[in-house]
Amino acid sequence: MTLSGPLRKVASRLMARFGGEVTIRTITTGAYNTTTGAIAETTSDNEIRGVLEDVNAREVNELVQAGDKKLIIAAADTAGVPTTVDKVLISSVVHQIIQITTIEQDNEPITYELILRA
């Protein structure tokens, strides 16, 4: 019996109870249009709940800056694995995903920790 299933459910319940509303905007790139010189993009929004906090001073490095935010979301609540191409909307402010850390058990994702920059 694996522990990952119950952990995913617990993470989802904790985010539902203690997390705030966020929107994960998944961006999928399409074909290149030679006439306009642009790449078509398709977006889909997924409203979930997550815990948002500031990045602390120990986490600041060459990639993570002071003023960035850390968002923890349950893997069971997401439509797929977030990527750095995707965006996060919090109170109508669009944030770029800088870094993604996956917390997993038995190769099953439990939570995602996203470093965000507005």
Give the secondary structure arrangement, pairings included.
Elements: H1 4-18, E1 20-33, E2 38-54, E3 69-74, E4 87-90, E5 93-105, E6 108-117
Antiparallel strand pairs: 1-2, 1-4, 2-3, 3-6, 4-5, 5-6
Distance between the termini: 42 Å
C-alpha Rg, in Å?
A: 16 Å
Can you tell me the overall shape? globular
How many alpha or pi helices?
1
Strand order of the largest sheet: 1-2-3-6-5-4
Instruction: Note poorly predicted spans.
Output: none
**Helix and strand sequence:** HEEEEEE
- Structural class label: mainly beta
**Residue share in helix:** 10-25%
Reported for the largest beta sheet, the result is: 6 strands, antiparallel, barrel
Report the count of strand segments: 6
Strand content: over 45%
Mean pLDDT metric: 93
Description:
With 118 residues, the chain is mainly beta. It is built from 1 helix and 6 strands; from the N terminus they run H-E-E-E-E-E-E. It has a 6-stranded antiparallel barrel with strand order 1-2-3-6-5-4. A hairpin with a 4-residue loop joins strand 1 (20-33) and strand 2 (38-54).
